[in-house]
Amino acid sequence: VKADGPDAFRAVLSEARPLVDLLWMRETAGGVFDTPERRAGLEKTVGELASRIRDESTRYQYQQEMRERVRSFFGSQRAVRQGHGGRSDGRPGERGNGSAPGGAFGRSAAGGRAAITESLGRSALVKRGGEGMSVREATIIVALVNHPALIDENFAHVEFLDLANSDLRKLHAAILDAMAHDAADERGAVIATIERAGCGGIWERAVELIKRARQWPALETAALDDARDAFNQAMHLQRSARTLHRELKQAQAALDADPSDENFRHLVEIQAQFNDVQATEALIEGFGVSSGRVGRV
Questions:
Q1: Which of 35, 95, 141, 253 is deepest in the core (most CB within 10 A)?
Q2: Does residue 44 sit in the same domain as residue 112?
């Protein structure tokens, strides 16, 4: 987002998914609804979820939305089974293409399984964290290596740093190795430790990512004060994101086990906080007073 500007940020916001989409996907993804009993079970489950919403107006909207999705979903299945492609049987909401309101949640052609939309499958709220090297985590590692004073200043945080990306965890392990051998007080010594660990290629990719994202405060040429500001901001967002990711998974598991109104509200709250962290990260401007640069370059 930082590398591509406001258009990329708008793209991130456009992919945000409402809770109704997440609930529908959870109940239909991978499910087989090829018998009346199974279809009735799905209809009952989503109906019960909607009925637990306390606010009357919101509850009505969710119930109506779920009814429309169920009709459309099973209408598309019936059309495929009968070999009529996109034709519906004329009942309201049963569209042959299987698209439900608010997203393309149709049925895949084989086995009666619900197809997950590609954009929802990529959502940070659905997929497991740690896929790919994030700018935030790369900023933390690159800043530590290029400005070893930050290692000493943040010893406890560095030692127990929680990273999602496996490659960056290897660089983190090399930093810890340098710390253990009193070789973490000079940039060249830390990089030498990284190279001895066979992680030179990972280091180069991390630096290149930082350059593309214009996170110059993490680079060697930045002043320590700017590097410190960028590091502290990245660490704050990292702790928030990792904590909220764990809480989100726990909230989803709790709702699965007990679809109560309380658990439903808790999931909504965690989702909102998670989205706030992502939006805050995307809007952060570069630092640069001490290095003579203000804003992004």
A1: 141
A2: yes
Alpha carbon distances (Å) from 288 to 208, 209, 219, 279: 19, 19, 12, 21
User: Same structural domain for residues 102 and 149?
Assistant: no
**What's the pLDDT tens digit per position in 210-247?**
998 888 999 999 999 999 998 998 888 887 777 777 88
Looking at the structure, do residues 112 and 190 belong to the same domain, yes or no?
no
pTM more than 0.90 = no
Write out pLDDT tens, residues 20-76: 777 777 777 656 777 888 888 888 888 888 888 888 888 888 888 888 888 887 765
Q: Tokens standing for 25?
A: 């996907």
Nearest 5°: CA angle at 34, between 29 and 40?
A: 80
Q: In which domain, by residue range, is 163 found?
A: 135-283
Residues 164, 116 share a domain: no
Phi/psi for 32 (5° steps) reads -115, 120
Q: Is 90 exposed, middle or buried (0-12, 13-18, 19+ CB in 10 A)?
A: exposed
In a domain, 105, yes or no: yes
Residues 166 and 198 in one domain: yes
Give me the residue label for tokens 């680079």.
219
Q: Are 192 and 127 in contact (CB under 8 A)?
A: no
